[in-house]
Amino acid sequence: MLILTILVPAAAGILFAAVPMTKARMKLAVCLALVLCDAAAAASILWGKPVSLFYLTDTVSLSFSADATARFFILLTLVLYTAAGIYALGYLERDEKARSFFVFWFVSFGAVQAACLAGNLVSLYLCFEMATLTSMPLVLHDRTRESVAAAKKYLFYSIGGALLGLFAVIVLVPYTGREFVFGGTLAAASAEGHEGLILAAAFLGIAGFGAKAGMYPLHGWLPTAHPVAPAPASALLSGLIAKAGILAVIRLVYFAVGPDFLRGSWVQTAWMCLAMATVFMGSMMAWREKILKKRLAYSTVSQISYIMLALSLLCEGGFQGALLHAIQHACAKEALFLCAGIFLHMFGTGEVKTLAGVGKRAPVVLWGFTLASLSLVGIPPFGGFVSKWQIATTALKAVPAPFSYLAPAVLLLSALLTAGYLLSVVVDGFFPSEAPEGEIRLERISPLMTVPMLLLCCGTLAAGLFGYSLIGGF
Q: Cβ distance 261 to 117 under 8 Å?
């Protein structure tokens, strides 16, 4: 069942490349493929059993399993790929390269699910790299000079970070168990006398896999790749694919090395410092940015580091806060990028100033942007409030001063900056201070674009009302 979850979307992508089809048939094929992919993913969540395909060495196998963490990320993948895939049908309706887009769309779908289901560090690394390689063509879809340069930057940062992760995997595999176990599998007897090496490897792994999550100083690919990628690709890169780095860090820290080994070490201190610096820096850069998609990209840098900060607390409450923020950020940020794509279709430009008065021209879209923004700011009852509350209260109890007070302060300051760079768009959109600058290029927006965006906004509300129920198994 787990192998089918990976192979069904990969096979769909290969068929899209091999079989010529009209645009009408392509829409039907995409919908059918999404149904099959979602059915396979749902079956894995319900009935998936661990499986080892083959042994790479005498002791290391390519294995997959569907534990609670895998099921959580598979569910996120299912929801976000489906929503963005339906949106892409409307967004790329007039794009001659739409078929090639869906080729890599479905192949990357399978690769991301493989990373979610990876059962040990080596399997995780291989699937992590495959997710990078298969998602990179989504960035260079337009084939412009800027998109090619952005795709190269995405590839170099991701692979460079993954090489640091590979060093961590090579060092840690001899000291940890063959399969993931929550709480870590580090053997105390074999690790004795090698604590310094293990700590260094863990830190390099966190920093390397953190590159995919946009953690400073390896965050530079996000504000470069997002503005040039098609809106559905940007939405996935921010809402989901960047979280492949989060998943890798979770597996490395909580399922291999173990939080107990890292708690109180210099690794935890450095990790918290980098996460807080990224939260603040990303918010400041977003506040200053005038291009909407680039503003949202810097926002992703900041918001995903909320998850990194929660994980760096190395306790159960921090882990739960990280999962809560992953849910709400995935829904809210994907919704915001889908809104940005609609605005881009309407005006042909991504500048924020063109959106003055857009509330009269596209009220439904701006309301969707508003709801998703409220969640990212942390306004109750949306998911952002619940996750930030969990992270802040856990920090006050789990780590010593000054970090116990500094972490909530950074979260509060970032929330204020988030309100500044997102809600200013909302206010100008509904209550422009002067005549709108943007000239409408496209009047009618397809329901294929608006419905997924609105459903994701509902997801942010559901994350606030029922988020704890969803992570009840952790």
A: no
Describe the crossing of helices 195-210 and 266-288 by its angle, rounded to 10 degrees.
20
Sorted by sequence, the CB contacts under 8 Å of residue 256 that are 6+ apart come out as 121, 172, 176, 177, 180, 184, 185, 186
Distance, CA of 420 to CA of 391 (rounded, Å): 22
| DSSP for 403-445, written as a single string | HHHHHHHHHHHHHHHHHHHHHHHHHHHHS-SS---PPPS----
Give the three-class secondary structure for 214. Answer: coil
**Do residues 438 and 347 lie in contact, with contact meaning Cβ atoms separated by under 8 Å?**
yes
**CB-based burial, 253-270: b 16+ in 10 Å, e otherwise:** bbbbbbbebbeebebbee
- Asked whether the beta carbons of 361 and 439 are under 8 A apart, the reply is no
Q: Cα–chain-centroid distance for residue 329?
A: 8
Burial of 20 (0-12, 13-18, 19+ CB in 10 A): exposed
pLDDT tens digits for range 284-303: 998 888 888 889 989 989 99
| Residue positions counted in the chain | 474
Residues 6+ apart with CB under 8 A from 264: none
- CA angle, 73 then 91 then 76, to 5°: 5
Give the range among 109-113, 266-270, 431-435 with minimum mean pLDDT.
Answer: 431-435
Q: Could you give the C-alpha distances from 113 to 167, 197, 285, in angstroms and in order?
A: 23, 31, 32
Please count the CA atoms within 13 angstroms of the CA of 176 that sit on its side-chain side: 32
Smallest CA-to-CA distance from 345 within 449, 418, 190, 419 is with 449
Q: How confident is the model at residue 412 (pLDDT cuts 50, 70, 90)?
A: very high
Which one-letter DSSP state was computed for residue 265? S
**Digit-coded pLDDT (tens) for 124-168:** 999 999 999 998 888 888 888 888 888 888 888 888 888 999 999
Residue type present at position 430: F
Task: Say which amino acid occupies 462.
Answer: A
Largest CA distance in the chain: 71
What integer pLDDT is reported at residue 106 of this predicted model? 92
Amino acid letter at 460? T
Closest C-alpha to 338, from 459, 448, 415, 427: 448
| CA–CA gap between residue 173 and residue 299 (Å, rounded) | 35
Closest C-alpha among 158, 187, 162 to residue 173: 187
Q: What CA–CA distance (Å, rounded) separates 314 from 175?
A: 20
